[in-house]
Specification:
alpha/beta, Rossmann fold, globular, three-stranded antiparallel sheet, 12 helices
Length: about 425
């Protein structure tokens, strides 16, 4: 009726998505050929319905978002995006370890590498901005060095604490650089660190970083302990399979999957867990030394068998890793005897949330053959320094759902 009244014979709805903002236009055609475009806006319900509809389009996020990973290590955040089927239009990795970079660049050949976080500037970023002119979202993720924040570290005070705090400041400085370099994009942050820090340290980081942290543990999805704090700038929605318990120092986010692979799923064929197995202890970096570190956690409570195995293995990991319940047993006896051993690297990789042989390329083949123990330690160090890709995938999925890059929230069943 209105169309006839004003002599308008046709119309077309134009919708453009700009990050978290929709721009609506209606183009009308008059009989005399003139065109009129009137801006309109959607209600909150209408905008949500629109996002859900267009999120079904394959690769909707292509070209509109950027991933920047500080202290990238082996590229955990990028691997988490891969698990979700999300590919950033630009991936910037900030990492100085050549061994970590040998793994990261093998898997993510399009990565743009900065080797020192202190040297990242707006001027260095601007040439990269030109390659992604339609970027509307920049995710800055990172896990700053954690030993100095861990309350179990007897040397956490003094110079080590100052260095950790300095690197945390650098992480925020990079975010500020990204805001300047990408003035038309929304900047989201996610800082990861150990949950073994004291509550006061956690509160200090929160006071500096801003968002109230969430605590997530790998034991929700895999038979291994590893709790971590995440300070992220977007919400987590409680729903079936996702439980959020608010707390004074952090909110606990628990992934409640009804079905989980059996522990044997993570082991090599022909090996099984001991009868009294519960869960593998928190993964740490292997540090072989003749004399154990002063005040190594767990020495006072370890069994005699664990202490003996710990000494034999040059104190590589805390004694709890050598308890009899952590041993694997062969399912096929050899010479009538049941063989026993501890976890191997490919099993540690899978328990850490990565695919088999993800860290294979840390050393070249000739060096691997000459020093197999050192090679295993190098891979173990990279895994011990990495944060959990499953937890990161869940958090990134929450952000992607908010931005309409996923058709629906990720189900906890999809992450196990």
């Amino acid at each position: 009726m209105a169309l006839c009244r004003y002599g308008l014979v046709g119309h077309r709805l134009l919708v453009a998505a700009f990050g978290d903002r929709l721009q609506i236009g209606v183009e009308w055609t008059r009989q005399d050929g003139a065109g009129i475009c009137v801006a309109r806006s959607l209600t909150a319900a209408g905008e949500e319905a629109y996002r859900r509809a267009v999120a079904r389009v394959a690769n909707l996020g292509h070209g509109i978002w950027v991933l920047v990973e500080s202290f990238a290590g082996i590229g955990t955040a990028r691997y988490a995006c891969h698990l979700l089927g999300l590919k950033p239009s630009l991936y910037i990795a900030i990492e100085k370890s050549e061994e970590a970079l040998s793994v990261l660049t093998f898997h993510w050949k399009d990565a743009v590498i900065f080797r020192d976080i202190r040297h990242v500037t707006v001027e260095e970023l601007l040439p990269l901005v030109a390659s992604v002119p339609h970027a509307r979202l920049v995710l800055h993720a990172g896990g700053s060095p954690c030993p100095e924040f861990c309350r179990w570290n007897p040397f956490s005070e003094g110079a080590q604490r100052h260095e950790s705090e300095h690197l945390l400041v650098e992480l925020r400085r990079v975010t500020d650089c990204l805001r300047t370099a990408f003035p038309c994009a929304a900047i989201e942050e996610c800082e990861e660190n150990v949950a073994s820090m004291a509550h006061q340290t956690c509160d200090d980081v929160t006071d500096f970083w801003g968002p109230h942290p969430v605590c997530m543990g790998t034991a929700d999805t895999r038979p291994q302990r590893r709790r971590r704090y995440f300070w992220k700038t977007w919400p987590v929605r409680e729903r079936d399979g996702v439980k959020v318990t608010p707390g004074e120092h952090y909110d606990r986010v628990e992934l409640q999957s009804a079905t989980r692979p059996p522990p044997a799923h993570y082991l090599r064929k022909g090996w099984a867990l001991s009868d009294d197995f519960d869960v593998f202890p928190t993964l740490t970096r292997p540090c072989p030394v003749a004399v154990p570190r002063w005040r190594t956690p767990g020495v006072d409570t370890a069994s005699a068998e664990a202490i003996a195995a710990w000494k034999e293995d040059q104190h590589r990991r805390p004694p709890i890793h050598y308890e009899p319940r952590c041993k694997l047993q062969s399912t096929v006896p050899s010479g009538g005897n049941i063989r026993e051993r501890y976890l191997q690297t490919i099993e540690i990789e899978r328990l850490a949330g990565f695919e088999k042989d993800y860290t294979l390329t840390v050393w070249k083949s000739a060096r691997r053959k000459n020093d197999p123990a050192g090679y295993a330690d190098a891979r173990g160090c990279l895994l011990g320094n990495a944060y959990d890709p499953t937890a990161m995938a869940f958090l990134i999925a929450e952000l992607a759902w908010h931005w309409g890059m996923l058709a629906k929230p990720v189900d906890s069943e999809q992450l196990v």
